[in-house]
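Comment thread on ticket #2218

A.B. wrote:
> Attaching the input chain for the structure job we discussed in standup.
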Amino acid sequence: MIDWDAKRTEMGYWLGSKFEGIGLMTNACKAFVDHAFNDLNLRKIEIGVATNNSKSRAIPELCF
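C.D. wrote:
> Ran it. Output below, let me know if you need it in another format.
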């Protein structure tokens, strides 16, 4: 969902364990963030992560 008035959106993710550690989610997140900010001119993206999962928490830091 995009809130066009506030120019914001949100995202979350889940990845099967056999796909972890090869950069798939980081690359997808980077592409999403780039598209949202550069093509859609959004100002804010809220990313939901599994707070008890260090790999999940690291992804947003790698995307910005």
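A.B. wrote:
> Thanks. Noting for the ticket: The first strand starts at residue 2 and ends at 3.
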